[in-house]
Amino acid sequence: MTSSTPFPADFLWGGATAANQIEGAYNEGGKGLSIQDVMPQGIATPRTEGPTDDNLKQVAIDFYHRYAEDIALFAEMGFKTFRFSIAWSRVFPLGDESEPNEEGLAFYDRVLDECEKHGIEPLVTISHYETPLHLTETYDGWVNRDLIGFYERYARVLFARYGTRVKYWLTFNEINSVLHAPLMSGGINTPKDQLSTTDLYQAIHNELVASALATKAARELAPQAQIGCMVLAMPAYPLTPDPDDVMASLTTERTNLAFGDIHVRGEYPGYYLRSLRDQGVELVITDEDRALLKEHTVDFVSFSYYMSVAETADDSKRIIGEGNIMGGVSNPTLQASEWGWQIDPVGLRIVLNQFWDRWQKPLFIVENGLGARDQLVEVDGRKTVIDDYRIDYLNDHLVQVGEAITDGVDVMGYTSWGCIDIVSASTAQLSKRYGFIYVDRNDDGTGTLDRYKKKSFDWYAEVISSNGASLTR
């Protein structure tokens, strides 16, 4: 065990969640339907026509009614920050109304009350994979420029209401994920196999403009706040030293790096513009759009990190395997989780250094964790989970965060994904558990919803209280 720590004294330790994966109460408090209400199996299957009884997200883990209990447990771990999202359709049930739903706003007032009670800094995501269903069905989601105005109105309501209470904001969750999941990430109703490349990239542009407008609004209404973008980070390594493989890995990485480039530098990079030309894409970009992007860049860059991939230019080596479910090819040097996500702690250090060298903006790791099938057992009369595998995973990644800080990278904080068990976004399962807190609910909807502390609960509490000094190398 180390006796010192590279983590700064003000490092923001905590955990992260999303409204659609924890709140439940999908039809309470004046909430409208969101795209999540017609995605009972996550991104794996097509949307349904309406809500179905097999959608675990209708109840999720019932945070809507149990938020005080859960935030108290986060405080017991010593959280300095709690990342959660606001459900757009809880504030604007349809998404295009002129006035917000007061009952929805009041719920988040109560959540913030509990955070303040326990001295926990809120980190709020404005849009996290839950576009109001009405905007999807009526406008085809972010393909339509009208959503820019609807989103700006929504963001301004949030800044006006909570601007003095929330210091850290994220505009969109994993904004680059729209490339992989147009419905979940972009609220796009057109099926992925029928969506034109031009419409997809126009939707991306519309979201980027909306993000800039939100940043502009925050600086008007909440000038003390810090606004960040949020991207999915996934380093791509060349499968071999062949220069063509190196170029293939660079091309793959740039599909993600472009989003940070635009948020930080305020303009489209040349390689991105070439990619659009090569695909025959002509976007509608106004002079006002260009000015907004240039003038309203972000204060910090936040990201999720779960895995790396390898890349090759040799199609004969492009074999579909468990370790490349998010693209790329399997890396033969790495192990994978139960869900095929390759485990690469050093990749987190690589990403941190790459982003810092590229953008020179403070970085915030707002998602990282291990999804696994946990077994509830009884130890000394107490129900718990002996999740040493999760402790090992998180320890090894956090050690690499410390190495990156020692490298000179400015890292603001770390929020472990699914700090309490939640419904998985990708598979809509509860059996894919990430949390330090076990929630007694199963994939078939049975369970008491009781909360139990896992072994990792006490481990993370020690990591936080020691500011990382308890991590083992």
TrEMBL record:
GO terms for molecular function: beta-glucosidase activity. It comes from the Bacteria. The active site is at E367 (nucleophile). Belongs to the glycosyl hydrolase 1 family. It comes from Cryobacterium arcticum. Transmembrane segments: none annotated. The lineage of its organism: Bacteria, Bacillati, Actinomycetota, Actinomycetes, Micrococcales. This is 6-phospho-beta-glucosidase. Keywords: Glycosidase, Hydrolase. It holds the Pfam family Glyco_hydro_1. One of its GO terms (cellular component) is cytosol. One of its GO terms (biological process) is carbohydrate catabolic process. InterPro entries: GH, GH_1_N_CS, Glyco_hydro_1, Glyco_hydro_1_AS.
